Amino acid sequence: MTKKVRNAFQYINRRLHWIAIFMLVFFTLFPLYWGITSSFKSYTAIYQVPPQLFPVNPLLRAYRYVFNFRGFYRFLFNSTFLAVTSSFLAVSLSVLAAYGFSRFKFKFSSIFFMMFLIPRIIPRASLIIPLFELWSGLGFLNSYVSLIVSYTATAIPLNTMVLTGFFGTIPTALEESAAIDGASMRQRIWHIILPLSKPAIITVSVMSLREAWNEFPFVLTLTTETAMRTLPYQLFMMRDAMGIEDWPVVLAFATVTIVPILVFYLIFQRTVTSGLIEGAIKE
């Protein structure tokens, strides 16, 4: 009887496991599916009861409106430029910081490393007023400089943590052999550390790019000119721009905003996963 009860519990646990996974996937993907399919509906069809799970007569009206929206390509350029530039700077600086933490041990190095990560756990909303005062006093409001520096500074701590863990798994004997052959520190980083750390580099690059692409509080606070808006900022302003709640247009704009970074992430999904796992393990 005990064995039968145990088998019954194991059977139920397996089924509950798959039910939990199904519910998690459903609640994660269904809003995305609903948003994308609704962007192809007409203005009236989106309010239809019962709702259409798939548009009966798909329309491109919302996407034509988005791509012809005044300033759209400027917003797209701003998002791309800020994301790529800040990600490049954040990854470059994080490589140097992580190399120092993983290779040079000094007094209180562990405490300093923890202090280096503290800015990451500070809520971003609490940084808005100090950053506004700082950049306003320096005269850099409505400029790419304030946004790039702010984006870069917030991405460096997490990138450094991941890269430090990954660099710690690379045997120091490789660098010691290269140093004996006359390789400088720059050459050792460029020809040994970076090639062996490709998964980790791609991981932090994707994370930095995603965070910069989706960033909203800083651009909302540090910019007032329309020409400096990014796609997430303009998505927030869509209702005021149209004057009415044209949900197919709003959802089309949201789709155009999230699809590039979603595709980019899916392309490097396996590399990001392995980079995070290996970066979390220190030998």
UniProtKB/TrEMBL annotation:
Gene3D superfamilies: MetI-like (1.10.3720.10). Residues 76-268 form the ABC transmembrane type-1 domain. It is a multi-pass membrane protein. InterPro entries: BP-dep_ABC_trans_perm, MetI-like, MetI-like_sf. The keyword Transmembrane helix applies. GO terms for biological process: transmembrane transport. It comes from the Bacteria. Keywords: Cell membrane, Membrane, Transmembrane, Transmembrane helix, Transport. It is found in: Cell membrane. It holds the Pfam family BPD_transp_1. Belongs to the binding-protein-dependent transport system permease family. This is Carbohydrate ABC transporter membrane protein 2, CUT1 family. It comes from Halarsenatibacter silvermanii. The lineage of its organism: Bacteria, Bacillati, Bacillota, Clostridia, Halanaerobiales.
